[in-house]
Amino acid sequence: MKNTSNSTQSSPSTTQKNGWWVLVSIGTFAFMSNLDSSIVNIAMPIMAKELHVPMNQIEWVVSAYLIILSALLLFFGKLGDLYGKVKVFRIGTVVFLAGSFISGLQINFPVLLIGRAIQGIGAAMTLSNTYGITTSTFGVKERGRAMGFVGTFVALGAIAGPGLGGLILSQLSWGYIFWVNLPFGIFAIILGAIVMPKSYQTTGKGIDWFGFINFALLIFGLFLGVFLGQEIGYTKPLPLILFAIAIVTFWGFIHTEKRTKNPLMPLSMFKIKAFSYGLGAAVLIFLSNFFTVIIMPFYLEDARGLTAGQAGALLIIFPIVMVFAGPIGGWFADHFSQAKVATIGLAIVAFAQALYYFLTLNSPIWVYVIITIVMAVGTGLFQSPNSDIVMSVVPKDQLGSAGSLNALARNIGMISGTALSTSALFIGMSIKAGFHVTTYLPSQPEVFISGMHIAFAISLIIIIGALILSILQGRNVKATDLK
Asked: Which Pfam families does its entry note (predicted)?
């Protein structure tokens, strides 16, 4: 398995000038783009009340962002390969900040959704090219640490949302959960203009428009069907029609990608087993992590009676630990087997997920803190080695597509985790209560705990699946593939 064939661009043997400052710029947007997928969760009750919309509608503030982001990732990754990863990234930074500003205006619900849609477009432009820029900037000897840096900020953003959102809401109105992006984003844009090269080498191939249309309709059909099904029932006509569209466009997408000369998603990459196993593991760990992101705010605020500020302070523990664990994982990846480090990280995450199962209404808070620290360490050890392998084993003229798939894997995991965690929680609660439950029951907190235990049992199974994929990845990657 060689990754030098069909390559138009060789991997740098040494790190380019200002490489680490380039990482600061792209890492800031990696953090913010993923942060905005989860920070809204803790603010939704307040937003629903102030905007005078029911809870089932306010959920679209999260869903719309994730769906648009996921639908456009492959397209903008391909544009990065064609016209320059840096160019697409820079335009995306401006679009993302414009969407952040609009979202925070607090005018009305339609304006908020428009702002979130613009944010999703900008996030797709930046995230799809983040890993490609990193791989093109750093030599082999430092790429593990560089991926650790990016992976840390990606995971930080995805997990830090509820904690940071709770802290902001304890002092400011909900619009500031979007406006917090502005000063950091402006700083990152200015820094990027100074330190980033004008461009990296590009390919001269065209865009697979049929593939893009099919893929976008697939994502919209599948996840609109999932979220509408949760709201009105999966057997209703509209979700069934959307699922039918997803099935047809999935077939159309695969059919197109097999035959076109310039595929949006080069299916040949999936023949590289180390790439496929790593991508699958990334989907599953983000899916599992989102069980924690979705369920823990309910546990801390509703079941344990903490304020949003207190819950936010506890939820922020995970990203703080990740700040240190991610680079450590990158360092280990540079000095030892990337696959082994990633597998050890997943084993630690599985241990933490098993411990979550034993939390009760009377568990000391320090127990929650210890479990969270353990899980953050495991996640940090996994992220950067896995991303390093995924991005290193593909041909270099497909870095944009590989980076897009890497980002897409995370977002598919987050969307699926949001849907599956709430479904598992409510099913478990309904079994315990003896009737259909779709909300927290203040007079019966034990019902929530029962549902939470079932949800985390499912989450543990998912992580074990990721662990198996990581072991298989280690058996299918060679040191020569990572050059």
From this structure: MFS_1 (PF07690)
CA–CA distance, 193 with 185 (Å, rounded to integer)? 12
Sign of CA dihedral 452, 228, 67, 394: positive
- The one-letter amino acid code at 200 reads Y
Cα(112)–Cα(174) distance, rounded to whole angstroms? Answer: 12
Angle between helices 19-35 and 181-195 (to 10 degrees): 150
76-94 mean pLDDT: 84
What pLDDT, in 10s, does the model give residues 1-14? 333 333 334 445 55
Answer yes or no: is pLDDT of 99 > 90: yes
Predicted structure pTM score: 0.72
94-98: list long-range contacts, CB under 8 Å, 24+ apart. Answer: 94/122, 94/189, 95/121, 95/122, 95/125, 96/29, 96/32, 96/33, 96/122, 96/123, 96/125, 96/126, 96/181, 96/185, 97/122, 97/181, 97/182, 97/185, 97/186, 97/189, 98/122
Greatest mean pLDDT among 6-15, 136-145, 165-174, 445-454: 445-454
Q: Could you identify the residue written with the tokens 């205006």?
A: 105
